[in-house]
Amino acid sequence: MTTFAIRPFGARPCTLVVCRGCCCGDARKNPGTDHAGQLARLRDAAASGGRLAVRTSDCLGPCGQANVIVVQPSTEGRRRGARAAWIGWALDDDATDDVLAWAAAGGPGIAEPPATLTLQMIPPPSGGVRTR
Fold first, then answer.
1. CA dihedral in degrees (103, 129, 62, 18; nearest 10)?
2. Which of 28, 64, 74, 117 sits at 20 to 30 Å (Cα–Cα) from 10?
3. High-pLDDT (> 90) share of the chain, %
4. Which residues contact residue 119 at a Cβ distance below 8 angstroms, ignoring those fewer than 6 apart?
5. Using only C-alpha atoms, what is the Rg of the chain?
6. Beta strands across the sheet bearing 121-122
7. 85-129 pLDDT per residue, tens
């Protein structure tokens, strides 16, 4: 009997989906936050080892909790039953540090999130993602 891998191109790492739509990433809504610097830090971390990936999205929906980052589990995390974790109010270096530490440790299903990050977890929007 022949068996096939779920993903023939290898396992997917923990992936960070960073909202950069109408509210997230907008200096008018959250002045004093280095939105470009945050995204650069996340991308630099992804480029330096392959333990995580970073994507951007136009609008994830919960604009009242900007900046929003969705931490998607790796292939192994999904095998263990993990689901994506939605993080709101990711506006400062501490939040970015916590997201990066959790993703580097394996993310949902592999590692427990930092306690401070659990306080920023929000429910995913119902009814799909809002568009502008």
1. 30
2. 117
3. 66
4. none
5. 15
6. 52-57, 14-19, 69-72, 85-87, 121-122
7. 999 999 999 999 999 999 999 999 999 999 999 999 999 988 654
